[in-house]
Design goal:
By secondary structure, the chain is of the alpha+beta class. The protein has one domain (2-148). It has 5 helices and 7 strands. A 4-stranded mixed beta sheet has the order 2-6-5-4. Strands 1-3-7 form a 3-stranded antiparallel beta sheet, with no helix packed on it. The longest helix has 17 residues, at 101-117. It is globular.
């Protein structure tokens, strides 16, 4: 599966304390979400390394994601089923409360974390741009090809 990422600058370091941890968004087509100059990366990943957020809790090892479910329960103050629905994308924060964009981004980070706890290196998520793929740069940085600079 060939995926693209655009960035306003070359990725030299992996920052684990960013909004999405060490994960970066990729798409199955080139996209630009910045003004001005940008670089484009291509990575070819195995589809078996990707899980759809919508199917996280249908996997045999879904209980591995329970620490992440607990984090969502604690931060958003919801019951377990609601936390799981937020992680798998069945619900969004706007469905249950006044949305804070930081919390919405944090839920996407939790989707990636849940996928990692279940042994996946990437998670397919849905948002306002359609389907995106969150890939862990710790796994894929060396496999990324710089296409355009």
């Amino acid at each position: 599966m060939k995926l693209f990422h655009t960035s306003p600058s070359i990725i030299n370091e992996i920052y684990e304390d960013g909004t999405f941890g060490s994960h970066v968004f990729f798409s199955d087509h080139e996209y630009v979400m910045t003004e001005g100059d940008y670089v484009t990366y291509l990575v070819d990943i195995d589809e078996k390394d990707v899980v759809a957020a919508s199917s996280l809790f249908y996997q045999d090892n879904w209980k591995n994601a329970m620490p992440t479910v607990q984090k969502v329960m604690d931060r958003i103050a919801v019951e377990q089923d609601i936390a799981m629905n937020l992680i798998d994308g069945t619900l969004c924060l706007m469905d249950i409360s006044e949305m804070d964009s930081d919390d919405d981004f944090w839920i996407q980070k939790m989707q990636a974390e849940a996928a990692q706890l279940m042994g996946y290196n990437a998670v397919a998520v849905k948002d306002e741009t359609g389907i995106s793929y969150m890939l862990d740069l710790k796994v894929y940085k060396e496999k990324m090809e710089l296409l355009f600079q």
